[in-house]
Write a structure and sequence with these properties.
By secondary structure, this protein is α/β, with parallel strands linked by helices. The chain has three domains: 121 residues, 3-Layer(aba) Sandwich (Rossmann fold); 117 residues, 2-Layer Sandwich (Beta-Lactamase); 164 residues, Alpha-Beta Plaits, CATH 3.30.70. It has a five-stranded parallel sheet, sandwiched between helices. A five-stranded antiparallel sheet has the order 9-8-12-11-10, with helices on both faces. A hairpin with a 2-residue loop joins β16 and β17.
């Protein structure tokens, strides 16, 4: 396994030695550099590349906050604070620190070090991956938008140049020609294929034969208003085929006027945009849902938590967060491979969906960590807490049932943490932190436990 390049910024020699001894005694895969001051740490950061930085808050020539501007964004920072310095820890998290550890005289905080580092690196990797993916999606959306703008401009130019018969027979799009009252005079084969009507069934009929009932009368009123005033309409609507199935359609209508300016005909271009709508839905799905399990991802979860916090504040009610981490998940990946690990995550996700209510949000935070958001609908803290405990108990029970993975049976448990909002936090960041802390207490006590944040 590739060693983790780690920079420790610590001016206390005793703590430096304790840190080194802990790494050596536990055979941890860390390539360690130590800086005893802010200035020495800055030099190290300018000359070397580190995977993670652990910095004591109070240093002889400054504080760990002085280092933040020198640390690359790809390297997470873990603050180390003295006993009781929770305010510093909160300030550090707001400044961009990935996590913090609280020193104690016996050095017991070092026991949390491996998991804290692993979690920080995992979170930073997820953040970088999400950011890269967001940029990729934005690029795709921008490119497609530019393509659509070009297509629309080209289509308008073509429509202005086309004449009655040329439009009817020289395009692969569905085309209909009507009189001034929208009664059908001619259609092409693409129109017949699209609507499923025969030529005899549509000739002489009004275009309302395709009305799906999904548009309001106001929509058609505005359509005719624009068409009469400008001689052109371009928009989207739902139409109905002969079989009764509905489909999204791009409709472009151009008025044909005679030599005295009177509208004699309308030419309509109809295009089935089902594929385009499906593509838009797929982009939305990729942006807000985990591709492996189909559950909400971190981005969607945070949006929904912030929304529920607003509801809780407005209605003076309570909801909860249930933080779930599978026990002993890593050995499955190491022993049987990631395909089996992925299959376990998929089965776990399905058990969530089968257990929870439809309006509860189930999300995969990353790896084997899952979050359940219970909506802010309980009138008191105690009711919300009891409901969360009940749901957590159901989750614990359903996750403990035997799994069939690649023809072999396995049993798993989960460490669960509960946080009640707005009591334990009033935004997504603070609520997730408190739920995470509660979960780690369950994990630290041996797993397969439910802990409520205190």
């Amino acid at each position: 396994m590739k060693p983790i390049n780690l920079l420790l910024v610590e001016d206390d020699l005793t703590d430096q030695l304790g840190f080194k001894r802990f790494i050596k005694n536990n055979n941890l895969p860390y390539q360690l550099d130590i800086s005893g001051s802010v200035s020495e740490a800055v030099n190290n950061l300018l000359e070397n590349s580190y995977d993670i930085v652990i910095a004591d808050h109070a240093l002889g020539d400054g504080t760990a906050f002085d280092l933040l501007k020198y640390i690359p964004s790809i390297a997470p920072v873990i603050f180390v604070t003295g006993n009781g310095n929770e305010d510093i820890a909160v300030k550090a998290l707001k400044a961009g620190a990935a996590d913090y550890l609280t020193k104690d005289i016996e050095g017991n905080y070092l026991k949390l070090l491996p998991h804290t580092i692993e979690n920080a690196l995992k979170s930073k990797a997820d953040e970088i991956e999400l950011d890269n993916y967001r940029h990729h999606l934005e690029k795709l959306v921008k490119l497609r938008t530019e393509e659509l703008e070009i297509e629309i401009k080209q289509k308008k130019i073509i429509e202005q140049q086309l004449r009655l018969l040329a439009v009817a027979f020289e395009t692969h799009e569905a085309v209909v020609i009507t009189d001034g009252n929208a009664n059908i005079l001619r259609v092409n084969q693409a129109f017949i294929d699209l609507t499923e009507y025969t030529l005899d069934e549509v000739l002489g009929q009004n275009m309302s034969i395709l009305n799906s009932g999904l548009q309001t009368p106001e929509y058609y009123k505005n359509l005719w208003k624009e068409l009469i005033e400008t001689g052109h309409f371009d928009g989207e609507l739902w139409n109905r085929r002969k079989s009764g199935t509905t489909f999204p359609e791009r409709l472009t209508i151009s008025a044909i006027v005679n030599e005295v300016g009177v509208t004699t005909h309308y030419v309509g271009n109809l295009a089935d945009i089902t594929c385009q709508k499906n593509a838009e839905e797929e982009i939305k799905k990729l942006a807000f849902y985990d591709p492996l399990t189909g559950l909400a991802n971190r981005r969607l979860l945070q949006d929904r938590i912030n929304h529920e916090c607003s509801v809780a504040k407005r209605d003076n009610c309570f909801g909860s967060i249930i933080f779930i981490d599978l026990d002993n998940f890593k050995p499955i990946n190491d022993t049987y491979g990631h395909d089996v690990g992925d299959e376990l995550l998929i089965q776990v996700s399905k058990r969530f969906s089968d257990t929870l209510r439809q309006n509860d949000t189930v999300s995969r935070l990353g790896g084997d960590e899952f979050i359940i958001l219970i909506n802010a609908s309980d009138s008191t803290f105690d009711i919300a807490l009891n409901n969360a405990k009940t749901i957590a108990g159901k989750i614990q029970l359903t996750l403990s049932k035997t799994y069939d993975l690649n023809g072999q049976t396995h049993d798993f448990s989960a460490s669960i943490g509960i946080s009640i909002y707005p009591e334990h936090g009033n935004d997504s960041e603070s609520i997730l932190i408190t739920a995470d802390k509660a979960m780690y207490i369950s994990k630290k006590k041996g797993g397969n436990l439910i802990t409520v944040y205190q």
